[in-house]
Amino acid sequence: MAPQSGYEDYQSARPMFYIGQHDSARTECLADHQYRQVLNQGFIFATAPITNEHFRKRVEDLKERFIADIKARDFTAAERANPSFSSPTIPTLTDEDTSLFPGAYITSVVGYCSPWIDLYSADPLVASLSRQVLNIEVAYASFCGVRSIIIPGPRADTNEKLVAQYARAIQEALRVASRMTLVVQVPMYREPGLEEESDTLSGPSAYASSEPGSEEIDIYSAWDTWHTIRTLCEYDQRLSAAVRVPKRLPEIELQTRWFAEPVYSLTLGASVFQQNRAGFPSLSKTHQTMINMFMRLKSAPWLLLSDVGPTPEDLAAVAAGSSAPQTPSSPSHKSTADFPSLAEAASSTGQPSAADKKRKSTSNAYFSYLKHLEREQEPYSETETSTLTNFQDWLQSPLQPLADNLESATYEVFEGDPVKYDQYEKAITAAMADWKALNRPSSALPRPGRAAAADGARTIPELVVTVAGAGRGPLVTRVIRASKATGVPIQLWALEKNQNAYVYLARMNKMVWNNKVHLIKTDMREWEGPVAEGHEDTKTITKVDILVSELLGSFADNELSPECIDGIQRHIARPHGISIPQSYTAHLSPISYPKVYTDLSGRVATDDMAFETPWVVHLFAIDLVSQKVPGHARFQQAWEFVHPVRLPFVEDWEAKYDRKKLQTGGGGAMNLSAGLNEHNARHCHLKFVCRPRGVIHGLAGYFESVLYQPAVKSDGSAAAPENTPEPIEISTRPDQIDRKSKDMISWFPIFFPLKKPMYFPQDAEIEVSMWRQTDDTKVWYEWAVEIFVWTGPNSRVKVSASELHSSRRLACLMRWPGPSLLARPPPPLHARCSQSLRHTLRSLAPSPTAFAPLSRLSSTSTLSSSRRLYSNMAPPTDTRPIVISGPSGVGKGTLINKLFNKYPETFCLSVSHTTRNPRAGENNGEHYHFVPMAEFEDLIAKDGFVEHAQFSGNRYGTSKQTIADQTASGRVVVLDIEMMGVQQIQEQRARGGNWQARYVFVAPPSTEILEQRLRGRGTETEASVQKRLAQALKEIEYSKTPGVHDIIIVNDDLDKAFKELEDFIYKPAQGQ
């Protein structure tokens, strides 16, 4: 069997397009065979009207009768205006009012609310009837098993009262259907001349433009309307937007505004497309760029093709064997295909006939074009692996970095970023080259009986280099490489407080570094300094010439790098000693981040600090709301730290008393502390300019670091002050990372949320105040935001202000277990990875082979995108059970075992019920639930099984309650069941069953290969092989039934098949 179309190799390297079909003229649901035809064309879903014209007529008749009754009763104007004057109530649905019923294809259906209702109407009667229709349709669709429903949005944006009225109706509908996603259809902007037709209860001309000749439009009005709706609905997680793509795209600022929103689908109508020279539909380059941008999202929106077919007539023609819908005047077509493919278009010659042009406008041409765009997307880069994509907009809880000793796997994660370590190696190499060229003094004392290295006519003394917080030794390796590259001899010290990492370092020292590294198991703050080599007997303490550390966090200093370096910098030689990094700066920018604000809103009930926690997060679906204008950058520096720094009061105390100063309270510093860490407190006040109006949900934090500023040019000569070489830097700022440290992935940005979203008008100024606070025992952040607008040349007013947010309750502790000694900086923060990608992501790049000879360690390395490890990351966002089926011998058991071995704490097999007796070694509740026949049959009568079967006189079944209990325990349940079980589940769904799961079918690459595998077992008789092959053909044929399986994985290559299974499992549920 050839690989299924739709599962080609390119899909593992590019985002997939999920394409749906909508027909606004459709008033009845498609029949099952019509849905099958639509899905067979490649569509993932189709919309379905919830009610039909019969129901509309009932509602309109009710409205007319009510109006006539009012007129007949001769009510006065005052009586009609009485608020207690009630509207009529719509009776419940009848079977004549709808053609939507639970069925086999219900999971491939997106409901579409009646477009003739008008929740935005100024007429109270129309608004009331529309609200009732919405509630009736939402409730019924939910009963049928529809997961999502699209609701036509307001047809205008001019009346704030009516927008609020609309939003109130949506909020009520969310309560009616507590498990359904409601999708409000809105335009990207109100495109002139392409307004929606409005044949509603309000009348066909209710929203005709009052100024048809006006050229000026407000492109943000539709977004304003959406913002009001979701705000009044309190950022409900089940509320999304279906954005109608315009023929002419707006400016990029509005596109990125929608990019940050929870967009369920992008609606593409026929007017958006243009014909190419071959007569086929195509999209402009700007439209292609916009779609490709959205497709990079973890929860990418679906693409909804609207009013481009196939119509019911088209489907009927196809079913009748016609190649295209025929009309009395259209000639028959020579092609046997349903619709022309791109391949046919490419091979055709000559001018298309009128009939060909008619065919080219059918739905398959639009669908084929979008699939063509899917294949033409830029492949995922090495920094866009599925693992990194899964981290988009996922909040990582901050940890106490001083309380944790990391495991080897976590060290491996941040060792997997070659960019960072390449930059560190460049900095170390440049520092050693400068030292050598400028003939700086060394802190190393001459070793008895050993001469210094020679360089021509002069000798080069050894440099004392210390790696503080060595972890598993990646920086140690880079220091040794730099020493060899520059010819500068070194005395190398490596400090590590993690006793387990220390064992690994000892092994590295013996097997890789030839015992040339002095390993010290200590907290860097407790280290007494390097002992001069050759003077161990006298314990002569010397100084450090180059101190290398990697203590930076997502906001540079948020993991206490300043405090850490404070504790060891007393060992740096003065005045020529070097710290790598030399300095680092923190940067801020206000952002709109509705998806994460929605996430945080859902956490508040169990985490009252959710909005006062600085979260580390892979910022992706964001809108940078400020603009770069003269005097005000988009990303602005909050503060800076420079190392080493002189601390005269500490140095003077230690020099006078030869001991460290005890920490005592009673001072006037923060929290009445002694103020010994006040030099590490910071404050900033920043001003950002925002041209278009919008909303902010918090502050994005980034950092930059100068690892080293070379003083010598590449030719070895000293550089003049005006001709200083470029510094060696790393950066996470979006506008600088490509220039300074392209493809670096070690750090995600930090996000400082706001408790309440802050709306700002056009041409506003956002002012941010932030403090880095300390009380000698801990460090925390405080932040506040104010918004101003100018009212005149010299006057402005404050339009809003946030409260002061503080992370003090979650502060980073400077103290560690033990006596309360001096204001000592905390231990080395190897736990910085706990607040970044390194906390959870496993080796995206190969780290140096642990015990390979040093000469074999390459100085460069590349990211490996072939390993997609999720074992330390968040569990799948879609926790529905996973049903895996496939023919015997296809390898599904091997795939399941790989899944369980890799994620032992995430997945579990379902524990089945059986009526047979336990065998030796089998435990009840572990291997099976052993139950008597009467109890088993009682569960069948109560519909308690997902599937069940009889074998050799015994009953076996998978209990719904067992699966529910396993899911509630935090596991994702995997079911390995046969085709008969899958058929049972589908039959239950067709009868209205609502058990939810995800379905995977594992297929062989061909029946020939499957036969080879079966015979290769050596345990099958010829009759058994033939029986299994016959059954396999049935299962493969059944797998082609649309709507049965969510994915078909062709197991041609085990690793590739497992990766496909991984990617599918960790793909977020639509709407999340």
UniProtKB/TrEMBL annotation:
Pfam families: Guanylate_kin (PF00625), PRMT5 (PF05185), PRMT5_C (PF17286), PRMT5_TIM (PF17285). One of its GO terms (biological process) is methylation. Residues 200-212, 323-334 have a biased composition (Polar residues). The keyword ATP-binding applies. It comes from the Eukaryota. One of its GO terms (molecular function) is GMP kinase activity. Residues 194-213, 317-338, 715-735 are annotated as: Disordered. Transmembrane segments: none annotated. Residues 879-1066 form the Guanylate kinase-like domain. Belongs to the guanylate kinase family. This is Guanylate kinase. It comes from Ophiostoma piceae (strain UAMH 11346).
